[in-house]
Amino acid sequence: MNDDSALIDGEVVRELADIPAVEVISRAAVMLMSSAAEKLGLGEADPATSPHLDLDEARRVITALAGLVTASVEYLGPHAGPIREGLQSLQRAFREASEYPDAPGAGPGEKFTGPVY
Fold first, then answer.
1. Which pTM was predicted?
2. Cα–Cα distance between 31 and 46 in angstroms, integer?
């Protein structure tokens, strides 16, 4: 263990100052994607019956993800494409899960990304 790391629960954890910005942004995006997927019920065989399904919460997380991706896309380099694709997949899943889908351009995060069909 070096002077720039800490030991938490037996694991060496790097200090945030030592982690490149692209890695911090990518990790945040992955966390938001995972949260949105859970809130859309995508972890279940039948998302519509998931006990975690919460479209209001999913909308918030997807919108936050869209803002993060839009604001940081120039810094993401090769990570930008897969993160954008993941965001669009979540936006489409939200539309499919909605009983009354938003109009194109009015869905979660679409004010940042443009309409997703």
1. 0.86
2. 22
